[in-house]
Amino acid sequence: MSFTLPRALPRSFLRSYGTVQGPPSAAAIASRVPGVLVEAISATAPRTNWTREEVSAVYNTPLNQLTYASAAVHRRFHDPSAIQMCTLMNIKTGGCSEDCSYCAQSSRYDTGLKATKMSPVDDVLEKARIAKSNGSTRFCMGAAWRDMRGRKTSLKNVKQMVSGIRDMGMEVCVTLGMIDQNQAKELKEAGLTAYNHNLDTSREFYPTIITTRSYDERLRTLDHVRDAGINVCSGGILGLGESDSDRVGLLHTVSSLPSHPESFPVNALVPIPGTPLGDRKMIPFDRVLRTIAAARIIMPATIVRLAAGRIAMSEEQQVACFQAGANAVFTGEKMLTTECNGWGEDRVMFEKWGYYPMKSFERPEPKEAKAAPTPPPSQPETAAPVAASS
Predict the structure, then answer these.
(1) Residue 103 known to bind ligand
(2) 100 carries a ligand binding annotation
(3) Which stretches make up the Radical SAM core domain (predicted)?
(4) Is 173 part of any known ligand binding site?
């Protein structure tokens, strides 16, 4: 499939803010959409010098305009029909010393989850084969602990898992807590594709959710991963009690890293009884959609992944996320300790809506767009958005 990257602002985008008689004036555009969004629509490459004010302006754009703009960006930088299918396996469950307020695997909370030892290498490789046979092209492995210090045997086993899965032709991602430079290099040498280490939320809100690991420690782990030449996978969790400003803060942090994450997981909190956040309600869907659309615009080449909480979304809500720029999902039997949409269910949805699995090691690079998107009907003026907390 061939795409043509336009060198100027798409006329269809301009027309969508004007009338059917012709494109609007510059003043008319400025009155309806922030200038930074207009610039983002015509960008030819990612930028890492976003200011928080610019990210806020994008995030707070009226949702119908924001999702139309994000869809235009998505179709310029990605094949809009390709969805990366990822499967996540818990290779070591429970017993974690961290106090993350949302997590069932913390030893500090009584969630009924029993701690286990690390899964044998052969068992993990068999799970990866099953995932591949069902269409997954990236296999992710998570272990419940704070960091890799003093875990030489565990690191040795993880490297065997990584090498074995790469031999199957699959991408491999792990999330093992904090790692140092040497551990990152060893994982790179084993063939690791990506390392997940979420920032979870904004720097300001973070201390209300976690006290046993600092925000800067998380950022240092991302530095080690990036310096080793491993793809960074880092996103957040929505619905922790944060405000729109905190979601803007998270987006600003990841979009102003030395380079954008290769993938940005968007998790919606799944409340776990027994944890401090066990009584929270799931975040309203419009906040999830707004975050996905804003992420697509400010990180145009990044894979945006629908992660935890997708199981609670309707099929139509999931498709709305795909149309706004999400292009990856977790699929399979489980997602760590929570339920996950199954392969068969996703296969039916993909066939119905015209999506298909992204190939292994397929990277989203700016490609040339075949044609500009068809403009929607002329729209009336929209009131300025009102920031809200969930």
Answers:
(1) yes
(2) yes
(3) 81-310
(4) yes
Q: How many distinct structural domains can be found in the chain?
A: 1
Q: Identify whether 321 is a catalytic site residue.
A: no
Domain annotation covers residue 256: yes
Q: How far is CA 12 from the centre of its chain?
A: 28
Instruction: Answer for the pair 56, 83: CB distance below 8 angstroms, yes or no.
Output: no
Instruction: For residue 243, list its beta bridge partners.
Output: 389
State the residue range of the domain holding 137: 82-357
Annotate 95-138 with DSSP letters as a single string: -B----TT-TTBTTS--SPPP-PPPPHHHHHHHHHHHHHTT--E
Q: How confident is the model at residue 104 (pLDDT cuts 50, 70, 90)?
A: confident
Residue 378 reports pLDDT greater than 90: no
- Does 126 reside within a domain? yes
Could you confirm whether 15 is annotated as catalytic?
Answer: no
Q: Which of 86, 173, 321, 340 is catalytic?
A: 173
To the query of whether residue 103 is one of the catalytic residues in this protein, the response is: yes
* Higher per-residue confidence, 364 vs 65: 65
Asked if residue 133 is part of any domain, the answer here is yes
Predicted structure pTM score: 0.84
Answer yes or no: 305 catalytic: yes
For residue 11, indicate whether it is catalytic.
no
Q: What is the pLDDT of residue 66?
A: 96
CATH of the domain at 114: 3.20.20.70
Active-site hit among 86, 233, 321, 340: 233
Given the residues 218, 287, 305, 310, the one annotated as active site: 305
159 domain-assigned: yes
Give 359's contacts (C-beta < 8 A, 6+ positions apart): 82, 137
